[in-house]
Amino acid sequence: MSSCQGELPEKAFEVKAVDFDGNVLVDDTISTLKNGFFELWLPRNRAISLRIKGLNRTAGGTIGTFDQSKTCVTTFRLR
User: Fold this and answer.
1) d(CA 36, CA 11)
2) Domain ranges of the chain
3) Whole-structure pTM over 0.85, yes or no?
4) How far is CA 40 from the centre of its chain?
5) Per-residue pLDDT tens for 6-34?
């Protein structure tokens, strides 16, 4: 058995996800769970620009929702 614990449990972040066609998929404040992570359900087969803001810092990048894409992304760093 294993478990993961994120560094920022129960914190609120502004999250914006936009696909490459310009469709806004998420534009909301989302709080991390007790384990420090949050979940996003996004449409399949898209490249998505993701921006996360909180604690006076920002993280951003591109994720994919294709068959071979990772379903757990832990590489976004607030800077």
Assistant:
1) 8
2) 16-64
3) yes
4) 6
5) 899 999 999 999 999 999 999 999 999 99
